[in-house]
Amino acid sequence: MTEILTIAYPWIKVLHVAAVISWMAGMFYLPRLFVYHAERATVGSELDQTFQIMEMKLLKVIMNPAMIVAWVCGLILIGLGAFDFGSAWAWIKIIGVILMTGAHGWLGARRKDFANGVNTRTGRDYRIANEVPTVLMLVILIMVIVRPF
User: Fold this and answer.
1) How many CB atoms lie within 10 A of CB 131?
2) How large is the average pLDDT for residues 106-110?
3) Count of alpha carbons within 13 Å of 23, Cβ hemisphere only?
4) Among 10, 45, 104, 149, which is 20 to 30 Å from 82 by CA?
5) How many domains does the chain have?
6) pLDDT band per the 50, 70, 90 thresholds, residue 46
């Protein structure tokens, strides 16, 4: 069993990193789509429908599966000993990932607002929201790579 885990560990880690990259690409792009959607499309227009399709596919085909794979692989890696329960960096990273998941959920709710024609937020609001994944990503990366605590 130990030999299988030794072989599987780097492959699970590769899958985890690939899923995180895909998830983050969507986390950066979806709020940018919302900026343009809020600023350039009127409810019910052809452009509104185009944005809705783009946003739905990005969320459901790329972001949701990538987030799930990132979480599953991350939990497997924790189970294989990749998490130092005694270090602050590890807990800060987990909090960052939980906050990123919350940001993902918030973006999903905003997509539904657009789909239902009830978006009340401005392009500026979405520009600000676009910074949240960047800040969280930096915190997570610093915790994993630098491990300052």
Assistant:
1) 10
2) 98
3) 23
4) 104
5) 1
6) very high
